[in-house]
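Input.
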Amino acid sequence: MKRTTLTVLLSFVCSCMIQGLPSQIPIWSGGQNKPLVAITFDDGPKPDQARPILDILEDYKIRATFFLVGEYCLKYPDIVLEIYKKGHEIGNHSLTHRPLDSGSDPLIRHELQGTNDIIEEITGQPVIYFRPPGGRYNQKLLELVASLHMKTILWDVNGEDYAKIISHYTYNSHRDLPVNDGDLEPIIEKVLTQVKNGSIVLLHNG
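Output.
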């Protein structure tokens, strides 16, 4: 099964979801007619975790999608640019990673547009995907996301790693591949037992 970006995966979603203005319905997975899976990483960019992840993806020739937090992008613009230059997609994960299902319209727009502006300033590319912090959303948030011409992306496979993946790797400057210390087995098993054609897999960058 090939690991790919959301854009490739979602090209196999029904046309009503990918043509014209973005749908206000969140996307949980892609089409199941191709052996494709989208790997996604939330909560970055955090250098201590992001660079090992990028090196591992490069070693395995995998392209992924990173949902980045705006305030971290401001702090680590070099990591954002590295993610982009290595051919990965970048999505919006809010400005401060606060829950947005209970915020006011001005607050939500600030969190969304502010993050888009930061990412676009660094990469020169528009942001077309948004993932709400914690996966929490309501209709108002979906409508505001759609008004900014973005699609709301969720997931159907949750690795439940919650920052354990890279912290439990043995990794050094020689770019050795990670060594599993045993704590990763439940994460690996959870993903492999749930994943199917079209899955969107949720992992974390810290």
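The chain is about 40% helix and 15% strand.
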